Amino acid sequence: MSNPSVEQVWEWLETIPDPEIPVISLIDLGIIRNVEWQGDTCVVAVTPTYSGCPATSMINMDIETKLRDCGLEKIELKQQLSPAWTTDWMSDKARDALEKYGIAPPQAAGGPKRCPRCGGDHLEKLSQFGSTPCKAQWRCQDCLEPFEYFKCI
Amino acid sequence: MSVDKQHLLQFLLRQGDNTLVLGHRVSEWCGHSPILEEDIALANTALDLIGQTQMWLGYAAEVQGEGKSADDLAFLRDAWDFRNVLLTELPNGDFGRTLLRQFLFDAFQSVLMGRLMQSSDETVAAIAAKASKEVAYHVERSADTVVGLGDGTEESHRRMQEALEYLWPYVGEMFASDETDAAMAAAGIAPDPASLREEYDALISKVLTDATLDIPAATYAHKGGRTGYMHTEHLGHLLTSMQWLQRAYPGCEW
């Protein structure tokens, strides 16, 4: 049996949600850097978002499980450090999905553009950190709701 | 230019042990911070530090070539094998002292990582590029908090000044170079730490001035951590807590 195409593998990976923010896929997040066949082994290069992110091992497990379910037998996951992950690699589709989910997407200016709930733009930072390494906590002064902001790095 | 493996290993252990020991110290705040946001912030900072440790000690184990892992180096070495600067192993003290220690270390890391990104060793450069983004975020927060507390109430100012007097004698060790640093500099892997002092002093004096804190005049520096010659009594206590599981159940896996 010949190997499924690399494009096919990317399509399978596209269906794997981020374990902590399930409305975006691992590909949307920009952490899958390469897929290639080395003989009969499918090698997937993954870059960590934050160096200590506990979701990393979960993500690797999800990738392996998915590809096994799709019939692949030999899978190798490779950690790729360089170039370091940046939120610039996040797709526009992911940014929209994040905002609909209630998380303000990353902005080059370093803070959220508007409240993901009411759209207000009078915002204040509550904390530079949040419930996961990739998020910070903000509050909207129009609707008074707190919300999470996906940090721009 | 090839470099002596023992020197490279020593250099990597210094990086990884700094982040490991400080990461563990900071994690001791988990569930004890003054407010929830600060608790989350400290836990996240500790997490980044432990993440950086995995990269540094992972590479150290690879260079060592004895088939060990980053976990082996973290959990199965004793106090005399650690190469962290003494600053990182000091007890947390109050919240202000913890944040001031964090700032003094973050400022050093922010200067160092910028240089290591230019390292002739590709792996060192890649780890530094990854870590530098987290370090930039850390130093922004610790500097803000130091200013907030130093230039805060009478009590917070007094406590921050006391913290600075306590921590200051531990700053000099970060810049104390030896033959390992000379070997790293000669191979273009890392700068001589002594050459970073000027940039560091400029950075911290700006923040400490904004915080209305007086930098102590004394120049004496406690040393012995980064060479492993003599750690403070505090490191052993920290390790008994951090390494407890592997000591009680050798080889235990999750």
UniProtKB/TrEMBL annotation, chain A:
Start and end residues of each MIP18 family-like domain: 7-69
Protein name: Ring-1,2-phenylacetyl-CoA epoxidase subunit PaaD
Species for this entry: Shimia gijangensis
All residue ranges annotated as the PaaD zinc beta ribbon domain in the record: 114-151
InterPro entries per UniProt: Fe-S_Maturation_MIP18 (IPR052339), FSCA_dom_sf (IPR034904), MIP18-like (IPR002744), PaaD-like (IPR011883), Zn_ribbon_PaaD (IPR056572)
One Pfam family recorded for the sequence: FeS_assembly_P
PANTHER family: 1,2-PHENYLACETYL-COA EPOXIDASE, SUBUNIT D-RELATED, FE-S PROTEIN MATURATION AUXILIARY FACTOR YITW
Lineage of producing organism: Bacteria, Pseudomonadati, Pseudomonadota, Alphaproteobacteria, Rhodobacterales
UniProtKB/TrEMBL annotation, chain B:
CC per GO annotation: cytosol
Listed Pfam families: PaaA_PaaC
One annotated GO biological process: phenylacetate catabolic process
Domain of life assignment: Bacteria
PANTHER family associated with the record: 1,2-PHENYLACETYL-COA EPOXIDASE, SUBUNIT C, PHENYLACETIC ACID DEGRADATION PROTEIN PAA
Protein name: Ring-1,2-phenylacetyl-CoA epoxidase subunit PaaC
Organism: Shimia gijangensis
